[in-house]
């Protein structure tokens, strides 16, 4: 909320270096949260329905060309099992229009 330009950074043709950093930090934080939920699911702490509800954010947050490139460059910073899960999820996921304000 403090930096709405991050929202536009997902799809804008060009973004500032500051917004690249903000987007990077935001995506890392979001994906770390999903990774933690994935660990909880693997350990049986949360059930599949709850995990899938949380995980849907992955295909949204990594649903633009820019964020898919981000994932390709950062996936090795995550647990290999989680990275494989994300790769499988994205393999058939279309790009999202969630960041296109004109779409809604």
Structural commentary:
The protein contains five helices and no strands. The protein has 104 residues and is mostly helical. The radius of gyration is 14 Å and the shape is globular. The model has no long low-confidence stretch (mean pLDDT 89).
What would the keywords be for this entry?
104 residues, single chain
Structural class: mainly alpha
Query: What Rg is obtained from the alpha carbons, in whole angstroms?
Result: 14 Å
- Helix count? 5
| Major sheet details | none
Q: State the separation between the terminal residues, measured CA to CA.
A: 19 Å
Unreliable parts? none
In percent terms, what proportion of residues is strand?
under 5%
- Spatial shape: globular
Secondary-structure element sequence?
HHHHH
Mean pLDDT: 89
Short description:
By secondary structure, this protein is an all-alpha fold. It has five helices and no strands. The relative contact order is 0.14.
Write the topology of this structure.
Blueprint: H1 5-9, H2 17-42, H3 48-61, H4 65-74, H5 80-91
Helix pairs in contact: 2-3
């Amino acid at each position: 909320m403090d930096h709405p330009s991050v929202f536009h950074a997902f799809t804008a043709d060009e973004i500032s270096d500051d917004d690249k950093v903000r987007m990077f930090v935001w995506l890392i934080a979001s994906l770390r949260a999903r990774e933690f939920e994935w660990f909880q699911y693997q350990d049986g702490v949360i059930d599949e329905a709850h995990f899938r509800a949380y995980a849907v954010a992955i295909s949204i947050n990594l649903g633009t060309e820019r964020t898919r490139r981000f994932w390709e460059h950062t996936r090795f910073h995550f647990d290999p099992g989680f990275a494989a899960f994300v790769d499988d999820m994205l393999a058939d996921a279309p790009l999202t229009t969630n960041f296109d304000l004109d779409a809604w």
